[in-house]
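Risk mitigation, structural track. In case the binding assays with heme C fail to produce interpretable data, a predicted complex structure has been prepared as a fallback.
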Amino acid sequence: LLEAAAMNHRASAALVLVAAMVLARPASADDAADAQVLAISRKHCVPCHARDPAHPAFAKPPREIALETIGELQRHAAGVLEQVVETRAMPLGNETGMTEAERDALARWIAALR
Ligand code: HEC
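Fallback model:
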């Protein structure tokens, strides 16, 4: 009986390990997508959309929209999708030379939020 209990214990430990690996996988895929989207925003949006914008034309974030964190990007996702993918008004004048691939990556990330 003790031996069976020990085997059971090992089996459940293995199960926990497998479950942890399965659960960890989507999280790390999300992390990679988050990192990519943060890099895109830093390059194409944050010059203006920051609490302290580097762009000389702005002393504060346009429309009070800062896009410096994942939380901010999530909060403004609908507006970002509209401005970057639908109307393409952003980045303003495409000053930063945002590519189609970067717009697609942002659109995919926003679609996955739903
Ligand atoms: C060169 C500066 C600049 C850059 C770069 C820029 N924006 Fe903007 N953004 C503005 C300005 C200025 C406004 C306000 C426009 C207005 O009031 O009509 C604005 C407004 C917005 C709005 C609100 C639009 C509305 O009418 O509600 C969103 C959302 C937005 N930007 C997203 C982005 C995203 C996402 C990026 C990066 C892909 C980006 N912006 C890059 C200057 C910039």
